Automatic annotation (TrEMBL):
Keyword match Hydrolase: yes
Lineage per the UniProt record: Eukaryota, Viridiplantae, Streptophyta, Embryophyta, Tracheophyta
Transmembrane segments: none
Physiological role: Mediates the side-chain deamidation of N-terminal glutamine residues to glutamate, an important step in N-end rule pathway of protein degradation. Conversion of the resulting N-terminal glutamine to glutamate renders the protein susceptible to arginylation, polyubiquitination and degradation as specified by the N-end rule. Does not act on substrates with internal or C-terminal glutamine and does not act on non-glutamine residues in any position.
Quaternary structure note: Monomer.
Family, per entry: Belongs to the NTAQ1 family.
Organism: Carex littledalei
Protein name per the record: Protein N-terminal glutamine amidohydrolase
Record's keyword annotation contains Secreted: no
Enzyme Commission number(s): 3.5.1.122
Keywords: Hydrolase
Gene Ontology terms: cellular component: cytosol; nucleus
Protein N-terminal glutamine amidohydrolase alpha beta roll domain: residues covered: 44-244
Amino acid sequence: MSRALMANEPEVEVEIDRLGDVSTLTRPPSSSPVSSIGAATFTHTPCYCEENVYLLCKKLGSIGVAEPTGLDLFVVFISNEGNKIPLWHQKASQIEEGLVVWDYHVICVQVKSKETKESTADLVWDLDSTLPFPLALDQYIHKAIRPLSFKNSMYRRLFRIVHAPTFLQYFASDRSHMKNASGNWISPPPTYNPIIAEDGTTQNLNEYMKMHAPDDCSMKELVDSVYINKYGVVVSEAMLEEFFSQIHV
């Protein structure tokens, strides 16, 4: 998984070291009622965001912050056809406002119940962000994604949204994407064993990373499909907030 930093102009990129130390970075205080949990509660291996989110979903359920089976959680892969997606306020950044260009990134979105939707916000859990943890979805979109910054450009983001119970059942990674042509690790792997799907599959990460233009269907069809499609659904930047506004658990 490679990454680059953007300079002032969108088309200029500066390569950075993937092995940057993030352990000493601080995050702003959060006003979220669950902020006392803290990012340190969760397992985090730099450059393995998909596995970090897999374990985060399980942890949120086990400590009672989310539904035990993850019914209120959605795993969101962020990428595009060119595998170059800018995000702000990232720990790995060494430039102003935390700008990083990832090949892909993965976050968790926790939606609120139908009964509390009007009074509470959907939350984003991003272990690689310097923003408050967790952060309201609309604020994360505004501060970290900034949709209008790259409208109709090669850097516009696409979002593969997968219901967490489905993701926890089917996701698998043998971490082969993190080895170079010589078979050496690009970044040290997690100390625990690779994740194997319940059906015995050992590698399908590429299916989640694969991005394409959203299907030509209604928002209702997309929302319905996220619960039945193994690899979820793909939405555009313009559709992201509306999509989650239609989710009720």
